[in-house]
Design brief:
This protein is about 35% helix and about 15% strand. The protein is α+β, with helices and mostly antiparallel strands and about 90 residues long.
Length: about 90
Amino acid sequence: MRIIREPVAYFSKKDDNKILKVIYDKYTVPKSISINYYRIPNYMNLFTKTACELSMDAFEDLVSGAVDLYVQYVAGAEARKRQQQEAQ
């Protein structure tokens, strides 16, 4: 088993109810949970004149999170490519 340094929270749907589930290990037991809920924003793109509804704090979190995910994806893809080349 791996140590989970930061617990992971996600919503799960059971019947018509949404349930918050938290994944943690015996070393990282959360003492409290704080939830910031943002609704799904209205559709917008570069060609509409609809203003972004998210606060700058939320925008910053979303962009930095997306960049982190992309960097991890690229790093993993490069590692898989190296493993395939070494296997050949």
